[in-house]
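Every protein is a chain of amino acids, and every chain bends into a shape of its own. The fold becomes a row of whole numbers, each drawn from a learned catalogue of backbone shapes. The protein below has been through that process, and both of its lines are reproduced in full.
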Amino acid sequence: MSENKVQVEIDGVNYTLLTDEDEDQIRDIAKYVEKKISEVKSQRLSFDRELVLTSLNIANDLFNVGNKYNNLKEDSREAVENYPSLSENYKKAIEENEDLRNRLDEKVDQNKKLEEENANLYRRVKNNEESTKTIEKLRNEVKKLQEEVISLKAENDNFKEKL
């Protein structure tokens, strides 16, 4: 345990303090006490009474901080008690989220494949429609040719009869 000597001034009086605490922290505390003394300073009060009032004000501040701490502790009690389950729920939510992301990626891949398949099918339908039109044209042409053949056969039969 190393003790440090820290020089501070409070209400115009120098004090040498031996402490294990941080020197800056001790100086901040001395400034706080100096401020509290200045709040009660009065020509009508003796130095002892000023110190007593200052001590009461500091004790009041400490009491208020203690009450705030206890209130915060009580307010956070439920969260602290439930922390393990909250933490577990959070971990489960992260795992579920990761699973959902993976499933989404799979569905996106499936969707891309289906879109490609759909595009191929669309091209095949278009080709079939064009083929159907070509077949219909060819049928009409065959029908005309058949009619022409029948006409030419009849004409040929007429010529045979004349001969």
About this structure: The chain has a mean pLDDT of 91. DSSP finds two helices and two strands in the chain.
